[in-house]
Design brief:
Layout lengths: L9 E2 L9 E7 L4 H12 L4 E8 L5 H8 L4 E2 L3 H5 L8 H29 L4 E5 L7 H5 L4 E5 L19 H7 L4 E2 L2 E4 L9 E4 L3 E2 L10 H25 L3 E7 L5 E5 L2 E2 L5 E3 L6 E2 L1
Parallel strand pairs: 2-3, 2-5, 3-4, 5-6, 9-14
Antiparallel strand pairs: 1-11, 6-8, 7-10, 8-9, 11-12, 12-13, 14-15
Helix pairs in contact: 1-7
């Protein structure tokens, strides 16, 4: 029972002791989540600072978003060094790809250590990122690396596992006949979308146009604004305020129970509704 969970847990805390929360962002695409963080910084520069943006490639529009706001931005050479996961079709090539990807992220970790020694530590790393992370980078940012996932990670299948993981949870939800989707913000660990869920954005109902069924991509674009944005905003604010912690007790899917202000949350963490991103348990 959640009511039996002790209020004391391992706090999710910042590294720097003063000044704004220093945020690093790993990006792949348009920079919508990056823009949410930049907006937070502009609203409250004493509390939030987007300090560094990193991409695995050279063509992400998010890099231009960062530079337009004076944020240091690093392009990458991941595909050149590692190849494409979609081209790894047997055990040998998949293993080679995975080793190369780990080495690439280990090198990025080394570069970040050097950058932090000169510029100060990052308190939080936010992923808007389409590459799998393993190795030293994942280990060093344990408990302070979060990801936005466009699926409800509190929905479990008959085996008790998360049903909407992977690359296309919106289409999966549509195929399963769900009436809506919502974004989940979770702590990144070595599992596939299996980390502790800190917050979920408001539910976004599927909308059909006349006799046509809902379109998954159009729906996901709506979800980015209506669910992604408030979910990320709430999570970053809660992290900065020291409101989040974990206990060793686990939910049915094996993930740690999240405490918000010392109160244990159900699977899915803090759920928001559409009343200006307001909270509900």
């Amino acid at each position: 029972m959640l009511s039996d969970v002790a209020s004391a847990g391992r706090a999710l805390t910042r590294v720097s002791r003063s000044g704004p929360l220093r945020i690093g962002v790993l990006v792949s695409a348009t920079g919508a989540n990056l823009q949410t963080l930049i907006d937070l910084q502009q609203q409250d520069p004493d509390s939030f600072a987007v300090s560094l943006v990193v991409s695995h490639g050279t063509r992400s529009p998010a890099l231009a978003v960062a530079r337009a706001h004076g944020i240091e931005a690093w392009p990458g050479d991941f595909d050149t060094r590692c190849g494409l996961a979609s081209h790894s079709r047997d055990a040998q090539t998949r293993s080679l790809y995975r080793r190369r990807a780990r080495a690439w992220h280990d090198d990025l970790n080394t570069r970040l250590i050097e950058w932090e020694s000169a510029n100060g530590p990052l308190d939080l790393v936010v992923l808007a990122y389409h590459r799998w992370i393993e190795g030293d980078l994942l280990t060093r940012y344990r408990g302070r690396m979060i990801n936005q996932h466009p699926g409800d990670l509190s929905i479990l299948d008959q085996a008790g596992q998360r049903a909407l993981v992977g690359k296309d949870p919106v289409n999966s939800a549509l195929t399963l006949g769900h009436a809506s989707t919502r974004t989940s913000c979770f702590l990144v660990d070595a599992s596939q979308d299996g980390g502790a869920v800190l917050c979920q954005g408001p539910a976004v109902p599927f909308e059909a146009e006349g006799p046509q069924p809902p379109d998954a991509w159009s729906h996901e674009l709506r979800q980015k604004q209506l669910s992604d944005r408030p979910c990320l905003e709430w999570t970053v604010r809660a992290f900065a305020a020291g409101r989040l912690s974990l206990v060793e007790h686990q939910h049915n899917d094996g993930s740690p129970i999240v405490l918000v202000d010392g109160t244990a949350m159900p699977l899915g963490g803090k759920k928001l509704d559409h009343a200006a991103g307001s909270e509900r348990s």
